[in-house]
């Protein structure tokens, strides 16, 4: 075969996909218990939604979007993140006219044209949760707590929560001007000097040692928060402390997307190396207006499923995954295969994961299939068993075999596997 998946596209295939599926399923439960409804949104959007929402000056918009023109001449972009599209859909369907906050979550592939490496892909997977329409520190703490609970529910123990406040439309411009003033006095290259004028906070995120060294005395947003932002941030921390969730105050935490205000956070994993950010989020109180909607505050997060899978591997934990097959049917002869096929359907309807040997394999080949399936039990049905209306039930862990009447086998197995 000459084809391979395009460069940087992350795929999950059996058996490794089991972990991926299990942690997604765990999130559905975490979200449901907190009143978040699942939604499905567009995989591609009007390019302007991201330009206005995420921000023209961000790397995501300026360098990493998969943008194409459709047959009608429209400029469309594969979603590089969920938030702008989720908010667009909330506004489009008028969900914000009902109970607030609108609590929604979704997940799926996200696309960014980045240089691929371990933990950094061009098609990757995010779990995204948003609470839209409330400006209440408890909502901020709730979203953070849900991500935290999910990490812990899947077995991760080394996740760190980095927390900051980016201020609001009152105090941020004052801080921004002060930061610009400071940055203009430094010895920086052309591109970084240009960034000072467009997005000075991003300069704080520079990883080059020669830049870092000069940033040591940079003014920090934490010292410039207005009284409201400070009180808000203190309250978020108080609520997190009440839940026993530890955080690290990270005054230089700036996120890669422009819409953030006030609470911002990242989840970091120490065993992941360069791509240590396994999730991130924050408040985006001006995003709705930026995309042409009414004032509508919001907060949420995006969790990187791919990096989370790597973190699990590094911590050496495997989340429990439901068995793919609990009972494996081995039928010998055409009539027995017919009866087994029907039995399989009855077992599945009764909630038992069941499979069988297909393709008329002999006993040996079929028993090999039973072993490979991971099933705990094999059901062996020969012509003679069929005549006696019975089936041989073999426990593959002990090799113990018993005869069970065909009419009882579903009940017997239900009792054994559940
Ligand atoms: P983000 O920080 O850009 O935030 O992405 C969230 C997570 O996606 C990151 O922490 C990381 O785990 C994962 N991620 C990002 N880029 C890649 C990549 N190229 N390969 C693999 N994983 C990646 C957002 O996208 C915001 N929409 C989050 C949010 C929701 N804020 C408010 N609501």
Automatic annotation (TrEMBL):
Pfam families: HGTP_anticodon, tRNA-synt_His. GO terms for molecular function: ATP binding; histidine-tRNA ligase activity. It is found in: Cytoplasm. Its main location: cytoplasm. It catalyses: tRNA(His) + L-histidine + ATP = L-histidyl-tRNA(His) + AMP + diphosphate + H(+). Keywords: Aminoacyl-tRNA synthetase, ATP-binding, Cytoplasm, Ligase, Nucleotide-binding, Protein biosynthesis. InterPro entries: aa-tRNA-synth_II, aa-tRNA-synth_II/BPL/LPL, Anticodon-bd, Anticodon-bd_dom_sf, His-tRNA-ligase, HisRS-like_core, HisRS/HisZ, HisRS_anticodon. GO terms for biological process: histidyl-tRNA aminoacylation. PROSITE patterns: AA_TRNA_LIGASE_II. L-histidine binds at residues 81-83, 112, 126, 130, 255, 259-260. One of its GO terms (cellular component) is cytoplasm. SUPFAM superfamilies: Class II aaRS ABD-related, Class II aaRS and biotin synthetases. Residues 21-323 form the Aminoacyl-transfer RNA synthetases class-II family profile domain. Its EC number is 6.1.1.21. Homodimer. Belongs to the class-II aminoacyl-tRNA synthetase family. This is Histidine--tRNA ligase. It comes from Nonomuraea montanisoli. The gene is hisS.
């Amino acid at each position: 075969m000459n084809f391979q998946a395009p460069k940087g596209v992350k795929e999950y295939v059996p058996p490794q996909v089991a972990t991926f599926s299990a942690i997604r399923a765990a999130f559905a439960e975490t979200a449901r218990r907190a009143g978040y409804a699942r939604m499905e949104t567009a995989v591609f959007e009007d390019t302007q939604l991201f330009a206005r929402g995420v921000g023209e000056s961000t790397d995501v918009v300026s360098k990493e979007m998969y943008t194409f023109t459709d047959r009608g001449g429209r400029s469309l972009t594969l979603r590089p993140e969920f938030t702008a599209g989720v908010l667009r859909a909330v506004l489009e369907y008028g969900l914000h006219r009902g109970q607030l906050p609108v609590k929604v979550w979704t997940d799926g592939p996200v696309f960014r044209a980045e240089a691929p490496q371990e933990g950094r892909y061009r098609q990757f997977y995010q779990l995204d949760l948003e609470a839209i329409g409330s400006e209440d520190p408890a909502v901020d703490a709730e979203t953070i707590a849900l991500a935290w609970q999910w990490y812990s529910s899947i077995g991760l123990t080394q996740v760190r929560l980095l927390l900051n406040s980016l201020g609001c439309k009152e105090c941020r411009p004052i801080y921004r001007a002060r930061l610009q003033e400071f940055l203009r006095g430094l010895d920086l290259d052309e591109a970084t000097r240009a960034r000072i004028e467009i997005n000075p906070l991003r300069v704080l995120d520079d990883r080059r040692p020669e830049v870092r060294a000069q940033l040591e005395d940079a003014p920090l947003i934490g010292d410039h928060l207005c009284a409201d932002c400070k009180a808000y941030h203190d309250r978020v921390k108080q609520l997190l402390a009440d839940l026993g969730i530890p955080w690290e105050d990270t005054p230089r935490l700036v996120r890669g997307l422009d819409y953030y205000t006030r609470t911002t956070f990242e989840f970091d994993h120490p065993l992941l190396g360069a791509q240590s950010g396994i999730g991130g989020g924050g408040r985006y109180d001006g995003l709705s207006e930026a995309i042409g909607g009414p004032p509508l505050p919001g907060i949420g997060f995006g969790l990187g499923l791919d990096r989370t899978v790597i973190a699990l591997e590094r911590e050496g934990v495997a989340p429990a995954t439901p068995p793919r097959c609990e009972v494996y049917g081995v039928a010998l002869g055409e009539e027995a295969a017919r009866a087994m096929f029907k039995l399989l359907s009855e077992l599945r309807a009764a909630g038992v994961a069941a499979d069988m040997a297909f393709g008329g394999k002999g006993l040996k080949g079929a028993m090999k299939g039973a072993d490979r399936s991971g099933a705990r039990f094999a059901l062996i049905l020969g012509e003679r068993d069929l005549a006696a209306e019975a089936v041989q039930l073999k426990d593959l862990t002990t090799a113990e075999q018993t005869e069970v009447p065909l009419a009882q086998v579903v009940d017997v197995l239900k009792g054994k596997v559940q």
